[in-house]
Amino acid sequence: MSTKDQADVSRQSVVEAISTVYDPEIPINIYELGLIYAIDIDPAGRVSITMTLTAPACPVADILPAEVAEKARAVPGVTDVNVELVWDPPWTPDRMSEAARLELGMF
């Protein structure tokens, strides 16, 4: 298996893990909501996640990034996790997956 294949598998595992984190106000996981902007994994198993929240004044601004880091850290092979919370570009409902839109009746 090549390094690229290993990264692809690890990325999928990270996506599955962080997809268990839900926004407390919207019954959709944060990955389907489009709150995860990037997931980078280096060959040593260090994971960098860039994410946002639905609004800068979100009451869970301290909680969700920590929960994302915790879930990613639990993935086999992950050695370290860094979660960066960004506000640019701002989140909009357009970032939601089709499945999330259907779940919320936004079609």
Describe the 3D structure.
35% of the residues lie in helices and 17% in strands. With 107 residues, the chain is α+β, with helices and mostly antiparallel strands. It has a single domain, classed as GMP Synthetase, Chain A, domain 3, CATH 3.30.300.130. Helix 1 packs across helix 3. The N and C termini lie far apart (40 Å).
- Structural class designation: alpha+beta
Query: What share of the residues lie within helices?
Result: 25-40%
Biggest sheet strand order reads 1-2-3
The 3D shape can be described as globular
Question: How would the blueprint of this fold be written?
Answer:
Blueprint: H1 3-18, H2 30-33, E1 36-41, E2 46-51, H3 63-73, E3 80-85, H4 98-103
Parallel strand pairs: 2-3
Antiparallel strand pairs: 1-2
Helix pairs in contact: 1-3
Quickly list its features:
107 residues, 4 helices, 3 strands, 3-stranded mixed sheet, GMP Synthetase, Chain A, domain 3, alpha+beta
Short description:
By secondary structure, the chain is α+β, with helices and mostly antiparallel strands. The longest helix has 16 residues, at 3-18.
